[in-house]
Predict the 3D structure of the following.
Amino acid sequence: MNCTPQELLISAITDMIGDDSHIAVGAASPIPGCAALLAQIEARHRMNVTILHSRRHNSFTEGSRELFDIAAQGRIDTFFLGGVQIDGNANINLVGTGQYPQMDKRFSGSFGSALMYFVVPKIILFREEHSPRTLVDKVDFISAPGTSPKEVYRPGGPFALVTGKAVFRFNKEKSKFELSTLHEGNNLEDVQDQTGFEFDTSGEIHQTRQPTVERLERLRTEVAPKIAEFYPEFARRYFGQ
Amino acid sequence: MNSGPSIVSVRELAASIKSGSSLGVPADYSGVPMQATRELIRQNVRDLSLYCLPSTTIQGDMLIGAGCVSTIETAAVSLGEFGRAPRFSQAVETGQVEIRDSTCPALHAQLQATEKSVPFMPLRGIIGSDIIKHREDWKIISNPFGEGEEPIVLLPATKLDVTLFHAASADRRGNVWIGRRRELSTLVHASKRVLITVEKIVDTDYFETEENSAGALPAFYVEAIAEAPNGAWPCGLQDLYGVDADEMHRYAEMAATDAGFQSYLDMRVFGEDVLQASS
């Protein structure tokens, strides 16, 4: 592999952003943040990137509610969500494990997921740790559901799941993940073993595309200095900024 | 004639916040009043209900760890890049603090309802989330303007006793510079009392030019202001200074245990040199 595991994930997410015109990045999302800025550099069309925790890459003037307002208006195409747990129906849990409210292990909370998951058309789920404790059959707490009954207003929802081992696409009709690509060094058996939910393997499964030398150069020299403004710890650890 | 807010010390400002108050708390990017927070802990304020817009960082974690908080309504408590909020997590796991889990746009909307003095605000999303199962104060109705049977969530208006935050500066008349951190206006509009610490008080009148007035919070909302240089430390403040990463790592590490957290308070809140510096 010509790149670090983090760079591969950034590159895989960049490929997914494609032709979208407004990408937003919320709390605690340095890898999606790098991907969004990289996609913007590579885009041949007009692309806005809004990073909530940045001053330079954030032109909101109405306060932090503006992100949720414009997402509800349909002005955000792509957003990223993570989870302490993610299950096979793409339900996400950012609250904790065990029984609510006095959970065994309490995490931060749901942030804006309970609206963003409903209104942004392309939600990319991201969780680097790929294990039976993060990818579970059923989440202990639903911060935001993967699918909704048809009477619920829901133009948005899950598009894909990117982990440290693989990329899945979400099939809304079946409410099920389909394995799309495996990162170099991983095989199907191991990924099935490390995933707590069942997923579809009937499609063609390729290896996750490696970033080109040019893309890596852009990431390391153009994106890394930008990310240091709002994710200084991440930039220091992975890019020596 | 003096129609402006009173100018007081940080100690006096904190002393005016009574135990049992509901307190509006800003997110890590909008001016965290850390010096005033340490003062609240020194003054042993109790039984606060924190309302976070829409999340909190070391401020909420320290107040919870120090036993100042009985309930917290928030979308998240997190130290961001520095990890989980250790005191918050432990207090929720052991039931020492009541958690009212919410989601960012709901926290904004409940204050926006108060801004408009209407009893509730509708919000899309949320349906199917476990958050609403534990919120008896939230209701689902059928959209009265819809054609079919679209369910939609209604959130009650929330009025806060006090809002406290830190800002870059205030002018001599008590207008406060908040720049584009307009969520602070939302907090202010929905609060009975507004207390602000600032880096400095300046001679510029913010309403003399249109350029400045766009980023100002009018003095008539504000009850009192205290000067607190570096008052957001170890959090950052707008473009004036960044987060102190070493201190945040130190906090995250020490606050992971009861004893470590007590040592942190001894060092940063109750230490003799700290008390001298703050008097």
User: Anything to note?
Assistant: The radius of gyration of chain A is 17 Å.
